[in-house]
C-alpha cells in the first residue's frame, strides 16, 4: 500500500463521523459537491477583493483564501464518502462530481490570476496560468484514457496534491506576512533585483506546480501509450498464430492432393 493511500485512509477515518452526520441530515453527494463549488467561488471572491481593495504588501486576503481552499478541499473527499457510505453512488453523480471539480479549479485559478495581475506579479500570474493548463490536462488525460478503457491515475500532481499545494502555500504566506512583513525583500550582493519576497511563499509553490502538473499530464500520456502498445501485442501474436495454423493446414492439404 502506497503512502498516499495510507494517508487517504487515515483522513477517511477522521472525516467519516462528519460524513455520517451529513447522511443523517439528508445531504446527497451532489449537494456536497455543489457546496464545494460555492466555497471555491468564495475563494475567487476573496482573491478578487484582495486585488481591488488591498495593497501589494497586504497579504491577509491571500491567507484567508488559502484557508478557504483547504476547507473547500475537504468537500472533494466528503462527497465521495457520502456516496460510498450512504450507498448513493451513481454514474451521473460521478460525472457531476468530475465536472464541478473542474469548474471549482478553474474558478479558483481565475481568482489567483486576477490577484497576481492586479498587484503586478506578471511572471507569477503567467506561471499560475501554466499551472491551470497543467491541472486541466492531468484531468483530461485521465478522463480520455478511461473513456478508452485504460486506467490512468498516476502522477505527482493529482487534485488532492494541487489543493494542498495552493491552500497551504497561500495560508502560510498570509500568516508569515504578519511576522516577516508583507513587503519583505531579500537581496543578494551583486544582483540588481531581489531574489525573494514575502509573496514568494505563495508564488514559488505555484511555479513548481506549473512544472509538475504538466510533467504529470505528459507522464500519463506516456503510460497510456505504453498500455495501448502492450494491449496490442497479444492481439497481434494471436493473429500471427492463426495465420501460421491456416498455412500449415493449407500445406498439409496441398501435400495430400499431390500424393493423391
The side-by-side strand order for the widest beta sheet comes to 1-2
What's the helical proportion of residues? over 70%
Low-confidence stretches: none
The oligomeric state is single chain
Counted by DSSP, the helix tally is 7
Considering the chains and any ligands shown, give keywords for the structure.
260 residues, mainly alpha, Four Helix Bundle (Hemerythrin (Met), subunit A), two-stranded antiparallel sheet, 7 helices, 2 strands, 80% helix, 3% strand
Briefly say what this structure is:
The protein has 260 residues and is mainly α. The chain has helices spanning 3-24, 29-53, 60-85, 91-118, 122-147, 159-180, 200-259; strands at residues 185-187, 194-197. It has one domain (3-259): CDP-alcohol phosphotransferase transmembrane (TM) domain (Four Helix Bundle (Hemerythrin (Met), subunit A), Up-down Bundle).
